[in-house]
Amino acid sequence: MLICCVSLPPATITSVPIYDYAKANVELAKLCTQKYYPCCGKSICIGCIYSFIDFGYKGKCRFCNFDSGNKTDEENPEGIMKRVEANDAISMCLLATGYHSGLGGLQQNHAKTMELLAEAADLGYSKAHCSLADIYYEMGDLKKAKFHYEAAAMAGHEVARKNLGCLEKTLGNMERAIKHWIVAASAGHYQAMGHLKTCFEKGCVSGESIDSTMTAYNNSCAEMRSKARDAYIRVMNMNYE
Fold first, then answer.
1. What digits encode the pLDDT tens for the residues 60-103?
2. Burial category of 159 from C-beta neighbours within 10 Å (exposed 0-12, middle 13-18, buried 19 and up)
3. d(CA 66, CA 84)
4. Where are the domains of the chain?
5. For the whole model, what pTM was predicted?
6. What CA dihedral angle connects 148, 149, 155 and 158, to 10 degrees?
7. Sheet arrangement for strand 2-3
8. Residues paired with 42 in a beta bridge
9. 130-148 pLDDT, tens per residue?
């Protein structure tokens, strides 16, 4: 369940030349636009998180007031494990990340990582399919990687769609790769738009196609923005500097 600040109007973003494309949207590619609370199994958009800070909810769940002590999801394996027992696919994915990278005091465990991701994927969680595909890709099993990228992409996971384009490029299928990047870029994926820019420079994509994709890209990014989200992004960027 995702709670979002839908009442806030999106920022206006105009079309820009191909060599300066959508620079205002770069930060959307750097930060996750929602936070998951394993205590309740709910997600909330970062704009709403920013809006709640003034009410003293910093570090606390916006739904049950649980105080995580500002720990990240990966640093709170106990709470996540409870949600895993309740067949929560998102928590399965988070716990898999802990086993994969050795976070939150967990020892790295490849078998447990794959088991949890497979269970989450069976529950229909697209991010689990994408994570499985990434691992299989690193292992050199392109057939399984493609299967899981396709499953995630069909469910609307645009990172998987972009990665599927990269996989098709690796396999020598540039026409398919470009089609996947167009779909991902049209949904607002920054890196997919970057791949298309490179293809355009090499003459592999027509000006008409790049223009229509650019318009769709900017429109999608505009829909993802709000005053509260932009304020949160500015604060986070200052913290990173």
1. 676 677 766 555 555 566 778 888 888 999 999 989 998 998 87
2. buried
3. 18
4. 156-234
5. 0.78
6. 160
7. 2-3, 42-45, 34-37
8. 37
9. 999 999 999 999 999 999 9
